[in-house]
Write a structure and sequence with these properties.
Blueprint: E1 3-7, H1 12-24, E2 28-32, H2 35-46, E3 53-55, E4 61-63, H3 65-75, H4 86-101, H5 104-113, H6 117-127, H7 133-149, H8 161-179, H9 192-206, H10 209-218, H11 220-231, H12 250-275, E5 287-295, E6 298-305, H13 307-320, H14 324-337, H15 340-344, E7 351-354, E8 357-360
Helix pairs in contact: 1-3, 1-9, 4-9, 4-13, 5-9, 6-7, 8-11, 9-11, 10-11
The chain binds glutathione.
Glutathione binds at residues 11-13, 49-52, 64-66, 100, 307.
């Protein structure tokens, strides 16, 4: 029977989880997240509407694409999605943080600020596969409205649009240069970083005909990689030997550190302020107000989103347990890309997830 992954083809985080499970050869089927599935399965189990969700044969519910990937890495055979060596794992966790919490900005900008007719219809097709096209467009519109309205939370505004596009195009150029040397992020097979980046690029961008066409024009190596990550199945191919992190990833990590890291550090400060009066076990709000940020050289405002610190805590936990030569190699890499502050700025409290919500441990 296997696992059941609940998600949609359009969703960034479903794409990340699905590609990882497929590549690893996990026995699973996929249930499309229709409004009925949200009402009957997702909301009763999770307490709110979110995808992807993994159901196990024994009735366990796993949510969060990162937790789903960790769960199948722990509980199923096949090669690991997480690299087994320290520096490659550090880079994977950093790229997961970048793809999930930063590339989501261009993904949502292009989805909602350009011609959104395709995604509106797609959301209708997902919700009502058997309805007429007109009905699908109408229901798609209803589903799209709150999602479109959420775009400013990510900092998407008239002030930042040109910066968001500059950031994304810079990323595409750097990633193309990397992919001209190597088929995947860390070698001859995909790993966590590939799946996280794939999530951001596949559902929101590659699959949209106009945005996919734009990607084909701007970054043919990235398009070929999207198709490899989607289609590849685990075989004898390996990651680079000796825990090597290719230099061609440095520009991507540098861009992350120059733009995402200041936002994350300010989020740590906002959390410190907020937690002062909070007991352990307190639920952490999804957003702690609004702050200024810069993307692609453009200044704007966005919500201070706390979930990113959950991903950051994983990076920091991993870094902290490195000792001796491994720590030295990690420090050299972090210094080279400007990532030291991000990895060493202490979170004010330990974060945990209980009942699928972020809490103070
Ligand atoms: N951190 C979560 C993010 C999941 C997420 O944002 N999913 C989107 C679809 S791709 C969603 O369901 N959003 C609904 C909402 O946030 O209200 C994960 O990695 O699973």
């Amino acid at each position: 029977m296997g696992y059941v992954l609940i998600g949609t083809e359009a969703s960034q985080f479903s794409g990340k989880a699905r590609a990882a499970l497929r590549w690893k050869g996990v026995d699973f089927s996929e249930t499309v997240a229709t409004p009925e599935v949200y009402r009957d399965i997702i909301e009763p189990r999770i307490g709110y509407s979110v995808i992807p969700v993994l159901l196990t044969e024994s009735g366990q519910t796993i949510q969060d694409s990162g937790d789903i990937i960790d769960f199948v890495d722990r509980n199923t055979s096949g090669p690991p999605i997480h690299p087994a060596t320290p520096l490659q794992e550090l880079v994977s966790l950093l790229l997961e943080l970048y793809a999930d919490e930063w590339l989501v900005i261009p993904a949502m900008h292009y989805r909602w600020n350009r011609d959104d007719a395709w995604i509106v219809e797609e959301l209708g097709r997902i919700a009502r596969p058997d309805a007429s096209r007109e009905e699908q467009v109408a229901i798609g519109q209803v589903i799209a409205n709150p999602l479109r309205d959420a775009a400013p939370r990510f900092g998407i505004s008239d002030d930042t649009v040109s910066g968001i596009e500059a950031h994304y195009e810079g990323f595409l150029a750097d990633f193309s240069a990397h992919l001209r040397k190597l088929p995947f992020v860390l070698g001859d097979r995909p790993s966590l970083g590939d799946f996280a980046l794939f999530g951001a690029l596949y559902g929101p961008l590659y699959r949209d005909p106009a945005l996919g066409e734009r990607m084909r024009r701007q970054a043919p190596p990235v398009v070929a990689w999207v198709e490899r990550v989607r289609d590849e199945r685990a075989g004898p191919e390996a990651l680079l030997a000796n825990d090597e992190v290719p230099k061609t990833l440095h520009p991507i990590l540098k861009r992350q550190m120059s733009e995402q890291a200041p936002v994350l550090i300010e989020t740590i400060c906002a959390l410190a302020e907020w937690t002062r009066a909070q007991p352990s076990g307190a639920r952490i709000k999804r957003s702690l107000g609004v702050h200024e940020f810069v993307i692609g050289g453009r200044r704007g405002q966005r919500s201070i989103l706390t979930f990113a610190l959950w991903r950051l805590q994983r990076v920091q936990d991993h870094y902290r347990q490195l000792v001796g030569e491994e720590r030295k190699r990690a420090d050299n890499l972090l210094e080279a890309v400007g990532g030291m502050a991000l990895v060493t700025t202490q979170l004010p409290v330990r974060l945990d997830r209980r009942d699928f919500r972020l809490v103070i441990a």
